[in-house]
Amino acid sequence: MYNIRKITDDLFYIGANDRRITRFENQHPVPNGMSYNSYLLLDEKTVLLDTVDKAVGELFLENLHVALNGRELDTMIIQHMEPDHCALIPRILELYPRVKVVGNQKTFGMIQQFFGLDLAERAMVIKEGDTLNTGAHTLRFLMAPMVHWPEVMVTYDETSKRLFTADAFGAFGAVNGNLYADEYNVDFDLLPEARRYYTNIVGKYGRQVLALLEKIAKLEVEMILPLHGPILRQDLHYYIEKYSKWASYTPEEKGIVIAYGSIYGNTEKAAELLAAKLADRGEKNIVVYDVSAWHPSYILSECFRFDRLVFACSTYNTEIFPSMEMLLLELKGHNMQNRAVAVIENGSWAPQSGKKMRELLGQMKDMRVLESEISIKSAMTTADAEALDALVELIVAA
Ligand SMILES: Cc1cc2nc3c(=O)[nH]c(=O)nc-3n(C[C@H](O)[C@H](O)[C@H](O)COP(=O)(O)O)c2cc1C
Ligand SMILES: [Fe+2]
Ligand SMILES: [Fe+2]
């Protein structure tokens, strides 16, 4: 049975949810599933904006067939060639042999790579600023390279002031019936997964996201239609503001992330004590994460959110405790920068984790490591607790 959502008289949502997926990109846990959005514009010409992941391909094809209601599919716009959106391209070409495919030079290179297809005269190769008139609507294409992949572009409907943004403004999590973000409790039910999606999937490419935001600022936009998660039609400023913070590696607000890796619980005690002392000093927004219990995608997302970060961990075979090392490598890989950072190490015979954590932090841009050497030898002493007091002052002042 099809499941089509009407956005306006001539625009339909024909995407679908995958609630069985456990890890997006076979990497990030998605406990609330994932939506793969696709849009169909029924103008004088019929226009499909992106296909979906193969997991929801059958429902998508049925939705498309029913929504077309006997009409031909004239145009398919490919904004992004990652398989979570492009998987159904070959099926569309088979089922709708007259469809013209709109993409940029890079799009068609990737269609060739993924599917071995040369679209020849079916390809409509566009570049920055080109437009396509579909009858009542004029669509303008804007390149958004590396807002996730090099071939990414977004589509601005000049007539209805709607912006189709590909992965930008997307979120982890299925669309729960409500198609619009304003129908959710945004701060609790959307923002955390939108942040985790952005920071983990696109977070590395802040500069390129800022370039896209500059282009968007010149447009009059009333609706943002991403390829994952709900559609935005209210408070667009709120989301754009979040994006400009994330993209410029600016903390959203004051707060402290304490991430710890501990084998027997001694480093954990230090982390808990530090959190309590910071709270007693009046700090708010303190979040504590056991790096072994949480997938790094969650902690990375919190590091984008807050301004001060503490990493505490045991030494493990002369190295950083593995799940802490993984977290730090993820932070480095996502260009995490511009934060005040503190390090606490532990070791029973030759503590090394502090030095090695500092080395990794030193490879990141503008990570200001606080002048504090807390090196616990197995279990915390009174002297260590006093050193924590001194660290609290440095963190408060940072
Ligand atoms: C597999 C393994 C390797 C370890 N390697 C080191 C090491 O190279 N140097 C060191 O000083 N301590 C080493 N330790 C000891 C732990 O670092 C130390 O006992 C721990 O930091 C205590 O803190 P915790 O209770 O938070 O785990 C190792 C422990 C284990 C289990
Ligand atoms: Fe993508
Ligand atoms: Fe995507």
What does this structure look like?
The protein has helices at residues 57-68, 83-86, 89-95, 105-115, 186-202, 206-217, 236-247, 266-280, 296-305, 322-333, 353-362, 382-397; strands at 5-8, 11-13, 16-18, 23-24, 28-29, 34-36, 39-42, 46-49, 75-77, 100-103, 123-125, 131-133, 138-143, 153-157, 162-166, 223-226, 253-261, 286-290, 306-316, 319-320, 339-347, 367-369, 374-377. The strands form 5 sheets. It has a 7-stranded mixed beta sheet with strand order 1-2-7-8-9-10-11. Strands 17, 18, 19, 20, 21, 22 and 23 form a 7-stranded mixed beta sheet that branches. The protein has a 5-stranded mixed beta sheet with strand order 12-13-14-15-16, with no helix packed on it. The longest helix is centred in the middle third of the chain and has 17 residues, at 186-202. It is of the alpha/beta class and 398 residues long. It is 35% helix and 25% strand. The protein folds into 2 domains: 5-247, 4-Layer Sandwich (Metallo-beta-lactamase, Chain A), CATH 3.60.15.10; 256-397, Flavodoxin domain (Rossmann fold, 3-Layer(aba) Sandwich), CATH 3.40.50. Residues 80, 82, 148, 167 line the site of one fe (ii) ion.
